[in-house]
Amino acid sequence: MSKGQTLMRGHAFSLLGLTLMCLYALTVSHRLLAAEADQSARNRIVRVVTISGAGLQPGTNDLLEPMMARLDQAASFHPDIASLPEHFSYRAPEPVPGPVTERLASWAHEHACYVVFGLITKKDTRIYNSAILIDRKGQIVAQYNKIHPTEQEIKRGITPGEDVGPPVFRTDFGTIGFQICFDVNWREEWRRLKEQGALIVFWPSAYPAERQLPALALLNEYYVVSSTLRGSAHIYDISGETLASAGEYQQWAAAALPVGKRLFEIDFNAEKAHQIQQKYGSRVQVVWFHDSDWFTLASLDPNLTVEDLIAEYGLTPLDEYLAKCTKAINQARPEAGSKAEPSR
């Protein structure tokens, strides 16, 4: 090969490399612009994926690469946020930022996607069981240190995190909350997340807790996303129903969540729900729970919110209806009436 041909070939490879870099940059920019465009929608529908570690062998093995392979598969869903299990990499404790956070930050930036993941972290001489949140641009924006580690974890050197308030964090699609594994048993912590406006609670864990999580989702009327080292990862509806599960044939699950969804009692609302279905058709979703006298109402239209429908039809969501009923019940009690009578 002549010197001229060698130079031409070198220039061709340089041009190819530059072209690929430009295509990559354009792809990332397009995804970020698409995410920003979605933020302008009045009614957000959030695309969520969750990863299970089932079938992988922990112990002394490093699980970062096999877990990343599953995350890469789930990227086909074009998620707004992805979740990985507690201590998903099975690596030794590391500072934040560190090698694992840097790897996830790169993935988050490439896919313009938030990422939640469990990590054993260290700060000075202390070790924590943590959940980390990385934003669409690859920036670390939140860390929650598990406040209820097990006794076995404490014996292994895990320090309980400080209770500095409910672990809720703002994203461009709304407020999310964190809990980790054994935290599932402290129900008041889950209520505090609701009180702080959490729309979705992410739960990186070692196990599925398939009995507790649906109950917590229903009691607090928010979505719950579990990401587990063993067993199935799940996405639960505000009604406690399972929307998606990982399993034998696919070790990740995905769902599109209309985060404005509300739960209603049929009293004074059922006929109005039928009217909404007739008027709005495929723009809304009504799911009836016939054995519970409940229904959920969600908008699938980016420019129509459930709050719009509540105002238009005079609907009363379940939590507000129960508060109203409690007030009426208390006022109707005999002792309330006797207190109201003027003295003679």
List the helices and strands and how they pair.
Elements: H1 3-39, E1 45-51, H2 64-74, E2 81-83, H3 99-111, E3 114-123, E4 126-134, E5 140-145, H4 151-155, E6 168-171, E7 174-178, H5 187-195, E8 200-205, H6 212-220, E9 223-228, E10 234-236, E11 242-245, E12 252-258, E13 262-265, H7 270-280, E14 284-289, E15 294-299, H8 306-313, H9 318-332, H10 334-340
Parallel strand pairs: 1-2, 2-3, 7-8, 8-9
Antiparallel strand pairs: 1-12, 3-4, 4-5, 6-7, 9-10, 10-11, 13-15, 14-15
Number of domains: 3
Described by strand count, sense and barrel closure, the largest sheet is: 6 strands, mixed
Distance linking N and C termini: 117 Å
Amount of beta strand? 25-35%
Pattern of helices and strands: HEHEHEEEHEEHEHEEEEEHEEHHH
Tell me what the CATH architecture of the largest domain is: 4-Layer Sandwich
Rg, nearest Å: 24 Å
Number of helices: 10
Helix content: 25-40%
Q: What is the 3D shape? A: globular
CATH H-tier superfamily of the largest domain: Carbon-nitrogen hydrolase
What is the count of β-strands? 15
Class based on secondary structure composition and strand pairing: alpha/beta
Low confidence ranges: 22-28
CATH topology of the largest domain: Nitrilase/N-carbamoyl-D-aminoacid amidohydrolase
CATH domain class of the largest domain: Alpha Beta
What integer is the average pLDDT? 90
Provide the spatial order of strands within the biggest beta sheet: 5-4-3-2-1-12
